[in-house]
Every structure is written in C-alpha cells, then in structure tokens.
Design brief:
alpha/beta; 9% strand; binds adenosine-5'-diphosphate; binds magnesium ion
Length: 460
C-alpha cells in the first residue's frame, strides 16, 4: 500500500506537470481534458493519473500521451510510464477498485482502462476480450489460429506461445481470449502483466516469501504473461521468471507471452530465456488492412447501438490505420460527439469529431522517399533498380514491397505509386500490392521483412 508521504508526492508532481501543460495546450483543451485530473501514484517509474471518466482517460492516453510524458519527465527528471485510471478528484477510484482483483467490469469504461490493475491489485481478464469479439483478417489470422489451438489443447502444441506485434494490434485481447476459454473448461490460470509479476517478485524477495511466490505461480495450468519486453534490464526478475517458466514448462503447463518487440530483439534478455522462447512458437500480428479495419469498426459500431453508416466507417478506416486501439478510440469519439450534439452520425460529423486525430495521423506521415529508401536499404537493392525495369527475383520483390508499403503507409493511389516507382502502370502496382498481401499470409520470411522495414521507418 502507498504510504501517506508517497501519496502526497504524486499530487504535487502532477500539479507541477499540469502547470506546464497549461502553457502548451489551448485553454479549451486544458479545461476539457486536463483540469479534472489528479496525480494518484508514482512508483517504480510508473505514474498513475486519475481521470474523471473513461472518455477523458482514453483521450489523454491516445492523443496527449507524449505531451504529458514530456511534461512529467521534466518535473521528475527521469523516464516515466504513465497509466490513466478512472478516478474522482478526491482520489477515490470508482466502485471498481473496491474489488480485490476479482474480475470487475464497469460498462462505461473502455476495455483497456478496466484491464489495468491498480498498483498491486492482480490483473484480471477483461470480459470483452474474447475470441468471439476478435475480428479475424489476413493480418492476424495466424496469431488467432495459434491462440485458438493453444486454448483448445494447452501445453500440448506450442509452448511457449509468443504473440508479437506493435502496440494496439490485439496481443492482449488474444491472450485474454485464451484465458477465458481455458477457465471455462475448468483450468486454472495466472494472468499477469509483466509489471505486476515484477512487482510481486521483488516484494517476495524483500519479504522473504519467494517460496509462496513460486508456489502461487507454479500451481497454474496456464501462465499468461503480458508485455514481457518489460523484463529487459530487470535481472533479478528475469531470474524469477526463468525458474517459474522452467517449472511450468517441464510439467507441460501452457505458457503464453506477449511482446511488442520481436523475440530476437529482446536482446537484453538472458540467453537462456531467449533460447526457451525460441523453442515455442512466435507469431506476429501485422497492422490490419483496410477491409479488416472496416470489419472491426463495424463490429464495434454494432455494440454501440448507434447507427453508424458505412460511409463513416470507411472514412475512419482510411484515416486511422496502424493501431486498432486508436481505431476504436476514433469511433468512440464519433459516437460520443453524436450523443453530445444529439445529431446522427454522418461523414460530416465524423470528420469534425476526429479532426484533431486526423491531424496527428498526418503528422506521423512518412515521406514516400523514406519508404523507398528503407526498402532499398533492407533488401540491398538500389533505388534506381527499384524504379527500373530489372525483373530478377530480388529486385521484383523489393519493388513489390515498396508498392505495398506506399499503399499501406501513405495511402497513395495506384497510379501515384506507379509514378513514384519510375513510371509503372497502375495495374502493375495493383498486381504487386495484391501479391504481397497474399504472400504475407503464407510466407513468414516476408512478414519478417516487413516488420523490419516498418521498424526502420518507425525509428527514423
Ligand atoms: P496490444 O496488446 O497488442 O497492444 P490490445 O489487445 O490491447 O493490443 O488491443 C487494442 C484494442 O484493440 C483492444 O480494445 C482490442 O479489443 C482491440 N482489438 C485488437 N484487435 C482486434 C480484433 N482483431 N478485433 C476486434 N478488436 C480488436
Ligand atoms: Mg497489450
């Protein structure tokens, strides 16, 4: 539990950060989103901000995170992870926190806010993250298949199963879905975020209760550990993880891990963990293509009881494309906007509701030349060759990947892409894009290529 002194502390830190933020955002923005927030807790590099409702928490997380983290970091003078929780101004969490880790579901809160535990409260499964609510498309088909297989026959097929993707693409959702299915069959499981695992392990060491810790973790039929990239640099915890992992693995208990970095890039993890990870199955989730994005939006729209026309879904799907959490957030915003103004959802209203989100997407826009260059660097094929006529396998593949990425990342039209790539015909471009899209599904090496190129682009 937080002591009085540390409880006072986050308030002051947050007030200082608010002072800075006030200077950086417009007044309406400050009044709407920031004014009624409160600093709740600060420990182990994590700062918890209380927001008055789910909509505010979500907006802060999705649209102001980097701004807020810069302000906070300048106050505390070190790196912080920020978590937003729904909490009233007097620091009282809403009814949800009175539960002691049993699953609690607050209908008006967005899924990821409910799923977050308060400091040491054990994480629990989110009731919305089921297989039934998971929309399957080309980008996530493999991960979905692996997850259902493991849920059906835990410990028998792929062990560990590692789900890997960029943030917001459904790893946690699939992991919880495995959990739901397994528990419905009477199996016992432990679901934990890596942060929670770390905290309880450290606490166990401090309190001399590592035996109990081991017992607790080793008694489960399944261990689901979310976001293992947080193990990086935490040697003591890695040690704890390794022993737990081994004990479970040796008795054929199922282990499921998620990570937002490819396993090979978890370079700082000790070798022994790495080789164990490699012994299971690593599946990735790619960013969803436009059809999947529309399908996801449609599914979410149906849950809202609001009538959202396809044209509005199309508009959102075309603009928000990398991250499903943002995609959901954009729809929530549109629905809230329509509620507030009492007007039906139209494309016009949608445009207005997400005007500033669209702007952020545009800020992230990657120049076409950077895409071609990244593809050229990755495949070791010169830019001239990509734009040229050579048709050997390597050059042709690099060219088609460039076409695909120009379409996916920059949302350019086929003939524009043709022009960028040295005057290719739009049917050639269309063929190239389709070919890559189809191959992605059956060719893990190609998936790996795309992940690496996208990572290079993201870290430009
Ligand atoms: P990650 O763990 O990869 O960061 P999450 O699992 O938290 O991502 O997913 C982010 C949000 O997007 C969640 O609300 C989740 O329910 C939703 N989501 C992700 N993929 C899908 C999908 N295929 N169908 C429906 N919802 C999805
Ligand atoms: Mg996650």
């Amino acid at each position: 539990m937080t002591t009085t002194t540390t409880a006072e502390h986050p308030r002051q830190i947050w007030d200082a950060a608010l002072g800075q933020l006030q200077l950086r955002v417009t007044r309406p923005n400050f009044e709407t989103w920031l004014k009624n927030t409160v600093g709740v807790a600060y420990r182990d590099g994590e700062f918890v901000v209380g927001a008055p409702n789910a909509f505010v928490a979500e907006t802060l997380e999705q649209r102001m995170y980097s701004l807020i983290s810069r302000a906070l970091e300048s106050v505390v003078d070190s790196e912080v992870e920020i978590r937003f929780e729904i909490m009233t101004l007097d620091g009282e969490p809403p009814a949800l926190s009175s539960s002691n880790g049993e699953h609690s579901d607050v209908p008006e809160a967005p899924p990821h806010a409910v799923a977050q535990p308060i400091i040491h409260r054990p994480a629990s499964l989110n009731s919305r993250y089921t297989f039934e609510r998971f929309v399957v498309g080309k980008s996530n088909e493999l991960a979905h298949a692996a997850a259902t297989a493991v849920a059906g026959r835990p410990g028998e097929l792929y062990n560990p199963l590692v789900l890997y993707s960029d943030v917001g693409l459904g790893k946690t959702h699939l992991m919880h879905a495995i959990g739901h299915r397994a528990t419905s069959r009477g199996l016992s499981l432990i679901y934990s975020t890596t942060e929670e695992f770390t905290n309880s392990y450290i606490r166990a060491i401090r309190e001399g209760t590592t035996d109990e810790f081991r017992e607790r973790y080793r008694s489960a039929d399944l261990l689901l550990l979310d976001d293992v990239q947080f193990l990086i640099g935490k040697e003591q915890t890695q040690e704890g993880f390794f022993h737990t992992f081994n004990a479970l693995h040796m008795t054929n208990r199922q282990i499921v891990l998620t990570s937002d970095r490819p396993v090979s890039a978890l370079a700082l993890l000790e070798d022994r963990i790495q080789s164990r990870l490699a012994g299971g199955l690593v599946v990735d989730i790619q960013p969803p293509d436009v059809e999947t994005r529309i399908a996801i939006l449609r599914a979410k729209a149906e849950e809202t009881r609001q009538d959202v026309p396809d044209s509005a879904l199309q508009f959102l799907a075309e603009r928000v494309h990398k991250n499903i959490r943002e995609l959901e957030g954009s729809l929530n915003r549109v629905v809230a906007f329509s509620d507030l103004t009492g007007s039906p959802v139209t494309v016009e209203l949608t445009k207005r509701a997400v005007a500033d989100m669209v702007e952020t997407a545009a800020e992230r826009h990657i120049p076409d030349a950077a895409i071609v260059e990244a593809v050229s660097d990755h495949f070791g094929v010169s830019i001239e060759a990509i734009k040229g006529r050579k048709r050997d396998k390597k050059t042709a593949q690099a060219r088609q990947v460039a076409m695909y990425l120009l379409r996916e990342e920059s949302q350019l039209g086929l003939s524009v892409i043709g022009k960028i790539l040295g005057g290719k015909d739009h049917t050639t471009v269309s063929h190239g894009c389709d070919r890559i899209a189809n191959q992605l599904n059956v060719d893990p090496q190609l998936r790996r290529h795309l992940i690496n190129i996208r990572e290079a682009l993201a870290s430009r």
